[in-house]
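Summarise what follows for lecture notes:
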Amino acid sequence: MSDETSNVDQLKADERLKIEVPVEEEVTKADTSGAPVDVTAELRGLGRQFVETLQTAWNSEERQRIEKEVREGMRSFADEIDKAIQEVRASEATVKVKTEASQVAEKVQTSEAGQKARVGLAKSLQWLSEELGSLATKFTPPEKEGDSEQ
């Protein structure tokens, strides 16, 4: 334990490790009796300093370098995705699936079952339209005899 204490004491005594921290003295009556403190002006100054700091950071070479890297990375990413999509489009499996899907669609359009399905769907939609029309007339109030004379 004494060995650790002596090491701490040596570090405290080392002049190279001493850091001066500025400490403001307490405000005395003499300080408050001087010119009044303008809080608005201080806040305005802080705002200007904040804007200036943001502008400096935005215009810094480091920010521009990072932006360039991000843009290049995004371009590279998009290029890789585009390349993968092109490979999928050109693949034998994709071509085969497209061909088979086209053939199935053609068979359905020309087959008797496909024709019957289209006719049945059209008739069903016509029936539904008629039923909705008759339902709508039930909600329409009947004309009164006095209204028809006018």
About this structure: Residues 38-90 form one domain.
